[in-house]
Structures are given as C-alpha cells and as structure tokens.
Amino acid sequence: MLSKNKVKYIRSLEKKKYRSEFQVFVAEGNKMVNDILHTFECELLLAKPAWMATQGDIPAKELLVADEEDLRKVSFLKTPQDVLAVFKRPVEQIEEADPSGQLIIAADGIQDPGNLGTIIRLADWFGIRHIVCSTDTVDAFSPKTVQATMGALAHVHIHYTDLATWLSAQATRQIPVYGTFLDGENIYQKELSESGILVMGNEGNGIRPDISTHINHKLFIPSYPQGEETSESLNVAIATAIVCAEFRRRLG
User: Fold this and answer.
1) What is the DSSP-derived secondary structure letter of residue 206?
2) pTM, whole model, 2 decimals?
3) How far apart, in whole angstroms, are the C-alpha atoms of residue 167 and residue 213?
C-alpha cells in the first residue's frame, strides 16, 4: 500500500535539496526503468501488477503494487506510466574523466533540463562516457532531465565541479579544448583530435569569458548557404549533435 508518507517522500524529490539530501533520483516509464534498473541501486519501485508480472526477479529494496491513482499521486509526468522507481544516485570519481585518451563534453552553465538530457543522450549515442558540468548547470538527476536522457544515464557518467579550475588543470597537460564561437574556425575544415574536451555553453550567453580563456581551439558551425541571412544561433543540444557527429565522422 502506498502511504501518505511515501507519497510525500517521492513528491519531495522534485526538489534538488531533497534529492541531494537522500542522494536519490526518480525515473518513470516502462522503457526508462528497464534501461537503468540493473545499473543503479533501486531503493523503491512501485508499479501496476501487469508490469510486475512481466519482469521476473526485480532488484529493488522495496516493491509496492500500485494502481492508476497511486501512480497519479506521485508521478512527475502529465500522463503517469506503469512504473515509477527511486534509485540511488551514483558516486562518481572525476579522475575517471581523463580527456587524454577520450572525448569528454564539458557543460558550462546549461540551464534547461531538456537540453542537458538530450546532450547526455547524444553523448551515449556517440560513445562519450563522461560529461563534466559546472556547478550551476542544471541537475542531471532532476525528473525532467532524467526523462530526457531516455535511459542514457546508465552509460554516461556525470560530474559536477568548478569547471574553470578543472579546465585549467587540463590545459597544463596540453589537452585540446574545443568550443564553438562566431569567430572560430570552420569545423568542417579544422583538424580535429580523437580525444579532448568539447565545451558547450549556456543557452542564452554561450561560453563564459572565464571558461573561454581555457579553450585553445575555437570552432564555428557555418550556416548554409553562406552569406544568406539565417537564424541567429543554434540550440545548444543541436550544436552538440553537430560537433560530436563531426568529431566521430573523422574517425572513419
């Protein structure tokens, strides 16, 4: 039975301070929960009987059978799904985000949960296993961001740190650090490395000055046809897709 205290607890996880306090996050939906159920430690899972009947042994500390009304009370979606689960947030080691032998995305002040979720999903698609975020980037484990990842959180490690300090340390190691700018070099003509850091900036302000000082390769995504008036800028998630695709295309 779903108690009032359980409802209150789950609903509280919409707020970052409670997710941080309990070190957990919420995931909803058949595919989402199935994709991450065997990656993260599941504290609590509530689902309709029909969903549970198809799962076999469910690795959750607490299982609750729920009906439509129960799920409506706790869901963060407009249309509640068959299952909702509370997972333990992973403890990541930023030392593993070593750009000397792999591509890493750095998120500089990204604020929209949908954008960050899409970037995490893109990272997964292009085989990028670490994203390093500034401390003011939106929480990757908020309900909206988690849903936008479509399960990619199971494969991509998310780190939060002082981004300027972290980038400064990488620059001393001669790590290639890329960022997109209007005065950058055409990405389709620029020589690109197999490893390094791709910095993606805030939706409204782009890459901040204190971050841009650590970027040693400025890229520009040209519009087509050249010289014709187009949109002023690209959405950060779309820009990330273009940049990642070009880096991976060069690998042949």
Assistant:
1) B
2) 0.94
3) 9
**Amino acid, single-letter form, for residue 232:** E
Q: What is the rounded average pLDDT for all residues in the chain? A: 94
List CB contacts of 71: < 8 A, sequence separation 6 or more: 46, 48, 80, 81, 82, 84
d(CA 151, CA 90): 14
Quick one: 215 exposed, middle or buried, by C-beta within 10 A (0-12, 13-18, 19+)? buried
Nearest Cα to 89, choosing from 31, 185, 20, 9?
20
How far is the first Cα of the chain from the last one, in angstroms, to the nearest whole number? 55
* CB-side neighbour CA atoms (13 Å) of 129: 12
Tens of pLDDT, residues 125-136: 999 999 999 999
Distance CA 20, CA 243 (A): 32
Q: State residue 252's pLDDT score.
A: 63
pLDDT tens digits along 101-154: 999 999 999 999 999 999 999 999 999 999 999 999 999 999 999 999 999 999
Question: Contact, 126 vs 248, CB < 8 A?
Answer: yes
Beta-strand ranges (E) seen in 150-230 are 157-161, 177-186, 196-200, 217-220
Report the alpha-carbon distance of residue 152 to residue 122 in Å, rounded: 8
